[in-house]
Amino acid sequence: MHEIVQVIVFAVISVVCILITRPLAKKYLRGNTVKTNLDRMIGKHCLVTEMITADQKGEVKVMGNLWSATSLNNVIIPAGEYAEIVSIEGSHVVVKKMDKGDDISC
């Protein structure tokens, strides 16, 4: 009977220690997150070189490189239009169509 009480006390104390120390360890051991070169593309303007549709990826040119692209909310963006990069998902970028009044600089 004495051994069962020891095992239960050990288990309870272990769980409490994990719950207390895990948030502290995540906060202090994570370190600073360093942005990659790809992160600097977010917010940049790009030229659509192949039409982007809801069903098919297109292509954009940003900072001298061609990227496969999809549009935000599945908006159709024809080739020759300008867009803004919203995010990077895997090996393609997600873009949103720019309005005619937006400042366009690629």
TrEMBL record:
<keyword id="KW-0812">Transmembrane</keyword>
<keyword id="KW-0472">Membrane</keyword>
<feature type="domain" description="NfeD-like C-terminal">
    <location>
        <begin position="39"/>
        <end position="97"/>
    </location>
</feature>
<keyword id="KW-1133">Transmembrane helix</keyword>
<dbReference type="InterPro" id="IPR002810">
    <property type="entry name" value="NfeD-like_C"/>
</dbReference>
<dbReference type="InterPro" id="IPR012340">
    <property type="entry name" value="NA-bd_OB-fold"/>
</dbReference>
<dbReference type="Pfam" id="PF01957">
    <property type="entry name" value="NfeD"/>
</dbReference>
<protein>
    <submittedName>
        <fullName>NfeD family protein</fullName>
    </submittedName>
</protein>
<feature type="transmembrane region" description="Helical">
    <location>
        <begin position="6"/>
        <end position="25"/>
    </location>
</feature>
<dbReference type="InterPro" id="IPR052165">
    <property type="entry name" value="Membrane_assoc_protease"/>
</dbReference>
